[in-house]
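Hi everyone,

Forwarding the result from last night's run.
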Amino acid sequence: GISATYAARVPMILVEPSATNLLLYSEEFSNAGWTKVNDVVVTPSSVDAPDGTTNAFKLSELQLSDGDYGLSEYLTTTPSTSYTFSAYLKATSDSDVGKKVRIRIRRAQGTSISASNHVTLTSEWVRHSVTIDLLSDNTSCWFVLTKDTSSPTAEQADECLIYGAQVESGSVSTSYIPTSGSTVTRAADGLAITGSAFSSFYNQSEGTVYTEAVGRGYFDFNSVFAISDNSFNESIYQRTPSNNQVLVVIDGGNVQAGLLSSTTPTGTLVRRAGSFKVNNFKGSHDGVDTNSDTSGTIPTVNRLHIGASASADNKLNGHIKRLIYWPYHSDSL
């Protein structure tokens, strides 16, 4: 709620950009839209899928595949673009736990290029992904699940369970978007506090923000939070944990403070704090990289974007565990 402080404290808030699942049939692997190359076999399964339904399928006879093709879907692609292919995979039986399959992207047209992820199957559903950066003449690709030819035959799985396939542009996988006959686009998440809900707790003279967040991929401009007038010219913000910007303050279009830290790997929970008032800016990263700036003004603002930039763009594509705001400056970061 809103009182002397404003705090967003829930198990995890997922904030994502808009994304489109380009696969027409994300769960119906028996559909003709999925090509079964080298006599691989797809059959329905009674095993519970990650969504609690029995929509999972069993993929068999992977040993008949050649490591390049197997369960495959062909898509037209945009050259010089990154694509990420993801799917939930699981061992069919205890005897297959620890054995391997391969998810793969390989060009269909243009200069030869491919990317693979060698997946070790477990007894639980795990979402795996692989990303490719296409060249300027790669106008189509195959998205494939096949045997893992890089492993000894005894370590290669002949079958596995599959659910929830997704192909999207970009270098990281976003949350699963089901499709059934057409592509589906998910809107970007929008979390913003404006109007009296904002002015009732925000102090225009000073403040401190503490965050705990996890980034799912590196993006230069993706933000954990931004306090602004809906523009970058008047804003206070923090970038994704994979970026080194702990606290940036801009007033009148000029950077007043830019407090930096070390960066952290994707998927790592990061704790950061930033405190601000005129001529007194402080920042910390996991309580270690503490720095300050003793010169600068602060902007007049009217909103708080959570997991987005000053204009609600550049979504975090990650999780926020905790965001706490205090309406006063702190010297003890």
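Residues 1-6 have pLDDT under 50 and may be disordered.

Cheers,
N.
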